Each structure stands twice: as C-alpha cells, then as structure tokens.
Amino acid sequence: MKEFREGKAIFKANLSGKDKGPGKAKGVFYNPAMRLSRDLHVTFAKQFDFSGIMLDGLAASGIRGIRLNLEAGVNVEFCDSSRMATETIAGNLEMNGIKSKIYNERVEDLLQNRKYDWIDIDPFGTPAPYLKVALKGLTDGGILGIAATDTAVLCGAKPSICKKRYGAVSMRRVAAKEVGVRILLSRIHNIASGMDKGIEPLLCYSEGHHLRVFVRLGERKDIALKWITKDMRIVDREEKDAGGPLWVRKIIKAELIPESQDGVLGRLLETLREEANGPPGLHDINDIAKAAEIGQTPQRIKIVESIRKLGSFASSSVFSPLGIKTDAPEDIRNQAVKLAQSL
Ligand SMILES: C[S@@+](CC[C@H](N)C(=O)[O-])C[C@H]1O[C@@H](n2cnc3c(N)ncnc32)[C@H](O)[C@@H]1O
Fold first, then answer.
1. Which CATH class is domain 282-341?
2. Is 107 in the pocket of ligand 1 (CB under 6 A)?
3. Percentage of the chain with pLDDT > 90?
4. Does ligand 1 come within 6 angstroms of the Cβ of 248?
5. Residue range 258-269: average pLDDT?
6. Between the CA of residue 24 and those of 31, 66, 82, 105, 111, what are the distances in Å?
7. Which of 40, 56, 150, 180 has its CA 20 to 30 A from that of 131?
8. Atom of ligand 1 nearest to the CA of 61
9. Which CATH code, of 3.40.50.150, 3.40.50.10490, 2.60.120.10, 1.20.120.140, is assigned to 2-261+264-275?
C-alpha cells in the first residue's frame, strides 16, 4: 500500500485504474483519474449549508468522505464491504485527525437500519442495484449522489442491457452522455415515485469515463418522462430511433454551481453554468456545418457566439466537445454556422 495526497488529505491505498497498478481486484481502490470528480464534489458540497450526516457508501480508502470532511466540513460516515478497505479507512481517518463511524458491511444491509441526509454511491460499474436502497435510506429532503461507470450501457453501445437495466432506450452520437444521464434520472425518478416521493436534480454531468448525478429527494411530483428524437425534438411517446423515456426537465441548478475556481475544474463549472438553462439534447457542430453545406466546421465557440447573436439560446456542453446546446431552429443554426466562418 502506498501513501498519497489529494486535496487536504493524506491517505493510504493501492493505486488503481488503467495501467496503474493492481486494479480493483486486489487491495484498496484508489483511482487518481477521479480526482476532478472529488474536487467538484468538495466544491459543490461547500455551496450547501449542510448540517446533517453523509454516508460515503462505497468508500474504498475513504478519500472522498475524508476530503468532504476536511475541505467542506461535512460530517461523514463510511461504509465498505471489504474488510481491508474498512481497516484502511480507520488508519486514514486517524492520519487526518477525523473521528467517525466506519461500517464493514454491504451498504444495502447498512441502509436497512439507518437513514442519512446525504448518501454517496460510487460503485464499480453500474449503480442500478443500489438505487432503491439508497433512496429508501435518505431522510426527507436528503441528497443522493450517484456515479455510473457503465457508460457503454447508458450511452448507446449496449442498448439491450440499457433497456433491461434502466428500462430505457439509449442513444449514440453527440448527445449520448447527456441522454445517459437523463436515463439514469428517469430510473431514479421512477423508483422515487414508487415510494410516493419526487426528485429534484441539483447537478448532473459527465467527466472522463463516468456519469454523475446529485438529486434531492422531496415530495412526489407528477412529472412526465418523454423521448428525444435524433434531431433533438422532445416527444411525448416513443418514436423510431428516439431515446427514452427520459427526464427532460432541468438537470443542473445554475445557482448551485460554485464560482471562481481555477483550471480544469473552473472551466468545467463555467460550462455547466452556461448550459444549465438550455433545452435537453445536443446538436453536433459537424452536422450543423454539413446541413449548411459549408466546407470546414468553424470552432464551436464561434458557432455558439453566432447563434446568440441571432437571438437564440446557445452554449457548449460538458457532455460532448462537439455538442452545442441550443433552441435555435435549423434555419438559424445554418445562418449561424455561416456567420461563424467570418468571425
Ligand atoms: C469504485 S470503489 C469506491 C471509490 C471511492 N468512492 C473513491 O472515491 O475512491 C468501490 C468500493 O465499493 C466496495 N463495495 C463493493 N460492493 C459493495 C457493497 N455492496 N457495499 C459496500 N461496499 C461495496 C468495494 O470494496 C470498493 O472499495
């Protein structure tokens, strides 16, 4: 086991991730490539006046919860089914001067008897088996954070598994990840409805190989799930090649996006803030250029600027480097891409 530093934490773990060591099969998992996800989680948690207890439900080394405690002042408890992981968490808490509870059991079992105000579920692969138990383990108004690394399933590469696991049709191409997030939200919404509850998405994004959503559990709302067509129209019923059923309401609350961060995190947050109030779905910049019959596709930022000049909503998106979020109809998108050539 090696010693690492991340944020304000110092901790021990086994290096995992592609080409970086023993991987998930042996030892206590730590993937440095997920640092940005933890940085964002810490920054996001600071936005709340959160006074309850959070559960780091699949904690591994405990790095996520340790950082949330040290950097955002969150009261965190830890759970992992691996004995080696929970022994490591105990040592890591001591190294960081944190006193807290650690549970060595399946999070599904722990949540039969305890409730939390914020639960984080960060599994290997799909979060589907944990959704119901995590929602049931939340106090009223509690927050659920869910990571999904089964992106191939949620984002169009394995449609039959997506249908079986999430009850929805996924999509390929530029909007695939955003649609994947909306499918995950539709599944969470359906489970919450079955408990006579509702959800409010707070912050949802994709980064690297994972998707992540943060939702608040609240009163039941009668919200209709819908479908999105290949040309990004929202329709009430299933159509050929459409993705859904999906959560088509807002997935990012702009007022919860922290400001003034530097570097990669700052740029990610800025894009999230920009796209928060846009419509669902993304248009591929190359498709826009092709439809307008122009040769080389202008830079995305120039097309966004041109669409705005023509009076419609436009933003880039964290869900794809080739995607533009816009409510501009096709003729305005065509005009904009031509205008962008001259910028
Ligand atoms: C992807 S790792 C968690 C990574 C960690 N959150 C981080 O940020 O580094 C998943 C962890 O879940 C644990 N685990 C797997 N199934 C579990 C279950 N049913 N209940 C609790 N822990 C579980 C594994 O032992 C592993 O340590």
1. alpha beta
2. yes
3. 92
4. no
5. 90
6. 9, 20, 12, 18, 24
7. 40
8. 9
9. 3.40.50.150
